[in-house]
Amino acid sequence: MQAAGGAGEALDRAGDGDGGDHAAAGAADRGGDRADALLALADGLGPAAAADGREGGRLELGAAQPAVHPVGLLPGEQDLRGGPGGHREGGADGDGVAQAAGALGGGDADADVALPAEQRGALAGVVAQLGEDRLRDGEQAVLAGGDGELGEPRPEDEAALGIAVDEAVVLQRDGEPVGRGAGEAGGLHELRERGGTGLQRVQHENRFVKYADSARVVHVLILPSRNLRCKSGGPDRGATARRTIMTGEVGVMGRTLAEKVYDAHVVRRAEGEPDLLYIDLHLVHEVTSPQAFDGLRMAGRQVRRPDLTIATEDHNVPTTDLLMPIADPVSRTQVETLRKNCSDFGIRLHPMGDDGQGIVHVIGPQLGLTQPGMTVVCGDSHTSTHGAFGALAFGIGTSEVEHVLATQTLPQIQPKTMAVTVDGELPDGVTAKDLILAIIAKIGTGGGQGHIIEYRGEAIRSLSMEGRMTVCNMSIEAGARAGMIAPDETTFEYLKGRPNAPQGADWDKAVEYWTSLRTDDDAVFDTEVVIDAAELTPFVTWGTNPGQGLPLGESVPDPAAIDDPVKRQNAERALEYMGLTAGTPLRDIKVDTVFVGSCTNGRIEDLRAVAGVLEGRKVADGVRMLVVPGSMKVKQQAEQEGLDQVISASGAEWREAGCSMCLAMNPDKLTPGERSASTSNRNFEGRQGPGGRTHLVSPAVAAATAVTGRLAAPADL
Ligand SMILES: CC(C)[C@H](C(=O)O)[C@@H](O)C(=O)O
Ligand code: SF4
């Protein structure tokens, strides 16, 4: 199924690789995806409970579940629409599809059926695991294993791990419901006795059985063998794992951070099919959403969780004259379409000129919406940025955007895991951008393919949140599905007090849970790479992909010296396009333009670094420098700190927030042959304008380059 978004797949994105011809790409997208989108939706709706409780009726996910979040700090409790209510006002549409009440909220049934506390108590508990007693203080044993003998689970029953007493539960066991027998706590009989409203029995053809409080769940509990399945590879992973457990050859293995977050969001898993993942946060922008909304309209659907969906205008917005209508008709149409869609479907939008507007990957973290342990998606490949918080965040195609809008879930094939460990300390003057460029040069643009990369090690721990976002942002440039960094004090410090961050007791609970989001010591990664931070220096690209980079002190490589014929040919072609000669010292390369901005390096720390270098200096004659904050808030903060003054005094242009020259979907473009040093993340042919030549650099290198007019580091000044 194409819409499953397999690991490492290219997105069905518009406007990529075509020099910004997004209108044409959008049309192709529209034509190509329709059937797949419908397919995906049908699949997505398959396994779970009918929201209206009709057994055997149309199968749907549980009604208006809050986002899956073990500590109950639900993104669903943050109503992104800003209005009263949120998901608790949800209703069901004519198809039994639960809908949060928004502008178009249909139906008046309250689909968000909360279980009375005593029923939840009856459900929640712990199953003794493979004969071991796993009860801890405050936990209660409720689910019997095997044939109902408490404490005697059969290995194949794979009893679930501990559940806090106040959590909602999915009871699951292969082939039959757990806790079904008379007298067994948590059995359906008991729920019925107590009036069990909101619980449905769901039996899937793949013998995946749940009793679910459909109003609250739907976590599939973490099963020990799940991890083994993940490790054994191939479609028969489950069978292999089970055999292994039964013969007692291996114990339960630890899990990686990525596996923990992934597992915690699986709402349905069936042999031979993609998993269905619950999505906690859906970010939307003008480029990849129009066809998705059109699809909803065509199918008569609404947005299932407008309260977990937030939109911003970023790609097509100009960075000057915000009060003027957008001159370019394609950009204007994109932006106007997003406005209409958000208004029709009840989605909070940050339009141009709004205080909260900015690049989608800058505003999510800024608003405290991106939190550890979440699943975050957006029709944008650099969604990997949000992995810096320990969220599982990845880009999706337009058909998948429609799927998430309609169901708040996404079919996924579980990616493999990769550790990139950066030992030691980054030398002075070496930044997160240099680090990620060096990582990509080392592992290649396909090095992370099929994997979620977890960045670890001392050098990563020492990075600020801004630096971590820069690193995770470019995971996609290494071909990875996502990048993640385990949350720690730096993460909590960044989040604390942000508008959507938990508060008070919720905050403490959240931090406790977030602290558990780290790779277990005995977890095994599918692939591991180790890098010594001490060896790194400022890094720049010389070619037309982000992996064609070298330390600034080196020279343009000679393709003739490259053994691999494909790489050699790529290098030849890149040098020709870039107008470079082998052997030229990188420091001798003259630039025409310097661009500071983008979701890679448009944050406050980046602007501080730039102003730090520019202070008391001038941009070289003949060089134009654009400094584009990643969001309006970043812009305001920079202005409060006086950074704009320093930047303007140096001769650089201080602009409004947006993607800008990162991809040239607005008037900020390179002209043919023009060469830039750019803090963005992509350097393919025409990325910054047809014929434009891009060198990817850090903010500090960008600023030093602006001063000298040639690729340079601050230490060269
Ligand atoms: C327009 C969008 C789909 C695209 C992406 O997916 O990344 C853009 O943001 C980019 O950086 O090329
Ligand atoms: S700033 Fe660049 S990379 Fe980031 S979302 Fe915008 S276009 Fe994509």
TrEMBL record:
Q: Which domain of life is it from?
A: Bacteria
Q: Report the record's Gene Ontology biological process terms.
A: L-leucine biosynthetic process
Region described as Disordered: spans on this chain:
1-30, 70-95, 669-698
Domain Aconitase/3-isopropylmalate dehydratase large subunit alpha/beta/alpha as annotated: residue spans: 259-709
Catalysis performed (reactions):
(2R,3S)-3-isopropylmalate = (2S)-2-isopropylmalate
Sorted keywords for this record are:
4Fe-4S, Amino-acid biosynthesis, Branched-chain amino acid biosynthesis, Iron, Iron-sulfur, Leucine biosynthesis, Lyase, Metal-binding
Q: EC number(s) per UniProt?
A: 4.2.1.33
Q: Which residues bind [4Fe-4S] cluster?
A: C599, C659, C662
Q: Coiled-coil regions in this chain?
A: none
InterPro entries recorded: 3-IsopropMal_deHydase_lsu (IPR004430), Acnase/IPM_dHydase_lsu_aba_1/3 (IPR015931), Acoase/IPM_deHydtase_lsu_aba (IPR001030), Aconitase_4Fe-4S_BS (IPR018136), Aconitase_4Fe-4S_dom (IPR036008), IPM_dehydratase_rel_enz (IPR050067), IPMI_cat (IPR033941)
Provide a Gene Ontology MF annotation, just one. Answer: 4 iron, 4 sulfur cluster binding
**Residue ranges, compositional bias (Basic and acidic residues):** 10-21
Query: Which Gene3D superfamilies is this protein grouped with?
Result: Aconitase, domain 3
Q: In which pathway does it act?
A: Amino-acid biosynthesis; L-leucine biosynthesis; L-leucine from 3-methyl-2-oxobutanoate: step 2/4
Textual note on the cofactor: Binds 1 [4Fe-4S] cluster per subunit.
Cofactor(s) needed: [4Fe-4S] cluster
Function of the protein: Catalyzes the isomerization between 2-isopropylmalate and 3-isopropylmalate, via the formation of 2-isopropylmaleate.
Q: How does it assemble?
A: Heterodimer of LeuC and LeuD.
Q: Which NCBIfam families match?
A: leuC, PRK05478.1, PRK12466.1
- Its family? Belongs to the aconitase/IPM isomerase family. LeuC type 1 subfamily.
**UniProt-recorded name of the protein:** 3-isopropylmalate dehydratase large subunit
